[in-house]
């Protein structure tokens, strides 16, 4: 029986971290560097656009995971103690993803970074990393994992076990990656906000005022809009589409029958996605002057 | 540099095939067997419901893949000759999926079955496999792979290279799996149709009349409805959702701006998904009396 990760990969981790640092450094010395032939800029607009698009990915992934029953046994550590089937699957998948170069993109953050091998592939040119190096490593993966397996899955899946744990953990992987990308995108949000108005942040950063930073980053009305939009997406994407009705219209008045309760999708954002993104922003900013 | 698949896995393939045969045999000797604690029946209604739900998965996956540029280099065999990055990623992912038990579910068909290891996990009870053993092995994976990498990707992605090949092939995997599941679901469609009216099929099967079988399985109006529903789903799921408008209403009149051209989504169904599903049905039926 294979271990959750090959011990031989441990040796490659340091080299990978070094490569990552070099790429970050390279991007700062060459601001015009682009990944592939498509330049990616970091602006308030591009960040907002990405956050909105990522809502779609999260709702799609919620709907895909919700096709399966809860299948609690997939999160039970008795599979390869102390790893659950879900942890085994995500660890192994991240090893392949690392080889395929997924983590050369700074938007992608692995859940289990300690034993990842070097990429076998390199982008044509280094990705345009625009994060502050000392802040780029902010990471709340452990918290996402804990919340997902212990609280979140139970909210939007039907109780029971359909026996199809292999496909279940594959859909967990996609959803976990979408949640992690969105939450860790807080690093890009914070970077853009800081550059836009550094004088607002510098005093709070210098005095390590977490509460003050959190207040500065909190816009209750914007957060409410995000939750309402996610709820609407869960309605639109989770409805039973037929050719009889005008597309989506008959599903917006009442709750109807949706594949994931739209209120639950909004709650996942309100309770976890938004607060964790803000936590990432605060932690990022606290290291922004290092 | 690791090979696309571990040679050590080859030895386990025969054992896995044996296990699969045993599971299929078991299901026939015990028709009440259920996967997990949730029984799954195979009826005309359940098959239709599954086909409709799988449209959602395919449209979601198209939209996720379309977030990336075409990134043609990911399909170039120069990565680990003769394997492309996409092939490397899918092969390696299927090894993990096999260990996690994905292929214990007969709805899941791997693209590269020859070197898959045994599952490390077993469902609580064998899955309720209801396919005819001699027909269950019908497989058009090679054709799906060829069409996907050589023709389909170019239809719904924007030209260019964003350098993010790792995430690209991960979204290819999800889409390829959704397409393969839908197309190979033709085996279940054929089984249900055969059981519903065996006398319609038996003479054609006995005379190996492919053309006659294909005619019997073809309902032009139903196919047209499927394409229109897929088009509508691509509109609904691929629109830019805002809180301003009534959900979806303003996007159903005109073509508007969608993340994947809804006509292309319908075309993917009309040119490949539907014909390949029917091909699977014909091949399944031809072996149904063995």
Largest sheet of chain A: none
**Rg of chain A computed from alpha carbons, rounded to a whole number of angstroms:** 20 Å
Beta-sheet strand percentage of chain A? Answer: under 5%
CATH arch. level architecture of chain A:
Orthogonal Bundle
CATH superfamily of chain A: Chorismate mutase, AroQ class superfamily, eukaryotic
Distance between the termini of chain A: 45 Å
Structural class of chain A: mainly alpha
H/I helix tally of chain A: 11
**Total domain count of chain A:** 1
Given as residue ranges, the uncertain stretches of chain A (5+ residues, pLDDT < 50) are 1-35, 247-254
- State the total count of DSSP E strands of chain A: 0
Report the largest inter-chain contact: A-B, 73 and 73 residues
- The shape of chain A, in one word, is globular
- The residue fraction in helices of chain A comes out at 55-70%
Regarding quaternary structure, what we see is homodimer
Highest-level CATH class of chain A: Mainly Alpha
**Arithmetic mean pLDDT of chain A:** 85
What is the N-to-C succession of helices and strands of chain A? HHHHHHHHHHH
Instruction: Provide the CATH topology of chain A.
Output: Chorismate Mutase, subunit A
InterPro entries (chains A, B): Chorismate_II_sf, Chorismate_mutase_AroQ_euk, CM_AroQ_sf_eucaryotic, CM_II_prokaryot
Enzyme class (chains A, B): isomerase
Protein name (chains A, B): Chorismate mutase
EC number (chains A, B): 5.4.99.5
């Amino acid at each position: 029986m294979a271990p959750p990760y090959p011990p031989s990969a441990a040796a490659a981790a340091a080299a990978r971290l070094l490569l990552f640092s070099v790429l970050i450094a390279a991007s700062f010395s060459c601001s015009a560097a682009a990944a592939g032939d498509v330049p990616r800029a970091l602006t308030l607009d591009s960040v907002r656009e990405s956050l909105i698009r990522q809502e779609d990915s999260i709702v799609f992934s919620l709907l895909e995971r919700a096709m399966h029953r809860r299948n609690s046994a997939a999160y039970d550590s008795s599979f390869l103690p102390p790893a659950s089937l879900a942890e085994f699957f995500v660890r192994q998948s991240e090893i392949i993803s690392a080889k395929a170069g997924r983590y050369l993109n700074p938007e992608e953050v692995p859940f289990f970074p300690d034993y990842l091998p070097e990429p076998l592939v390199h982008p044509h040119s280094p990705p345009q990393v625009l994060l502050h190096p000392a802040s780029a490593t902010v990471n709340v993966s452990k918290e996402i994992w804990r919340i997902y397996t212990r609280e979140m899955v139970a909210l939007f899946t039907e109780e029971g076990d359909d026996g199809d744990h292999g496909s279940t953990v594959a859909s967990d992987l996609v959803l976990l990656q979408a949640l992690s990308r969105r939450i860790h995108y807080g690093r890009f949000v914070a970077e853009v906000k800081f550059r836009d108005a550094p004088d607002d942040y510098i005093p709070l950063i210098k005095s390590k005022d977490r509460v003050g930073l959190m207040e500065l980053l909190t816009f209750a009305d914007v957060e409410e809009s995000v939750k309402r939009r996610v709820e609407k997406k869960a309605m639109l994407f989770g409805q039973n589409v037929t050719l009889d009705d005008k597309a989506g219209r008959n599903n917006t008045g009442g709750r109807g029958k949706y594949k994931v309760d739209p209120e639950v999708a909004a709650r996942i954002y309100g309770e976890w996605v938004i607060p964790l993104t803000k936590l990432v922003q605060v932690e990022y900013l606290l290291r922004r002057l290092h």
